[in-house]
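One thing: could you explain this record?
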Amino acid sequence: MNKKNVFVKEKNVPLIFLLKPTIMIVYVNDVAVKTYYGAKVKSAIWAYFRDHDIPVKTPVKEVRDAYGNRLDFDGSIRSNSKIYFKL
């Protein structure tokens, strides 16, 4: 069975869109940033750079969460996570 053809009969909506949200909000330096579901820390930082017209090659020394824990750039984040970094 082709997964593209799986629809909910009542609303004619693909089932995949009902299972997981496709966009999540993450707070980077107390600014709300939209990223895709399952994004990594570096993806949220890139989205922050994109929204503020900062070149992506700008070095980021370290990233911390709301509790002061150091985060890895490849670490996963959840919706409504708060991350902080300095340029």
In short: The helical segments are 16-19, 41-52. The domain at 19-85 is CATH 3.10.20.30 (Ubiquitin-like (UB roll)).
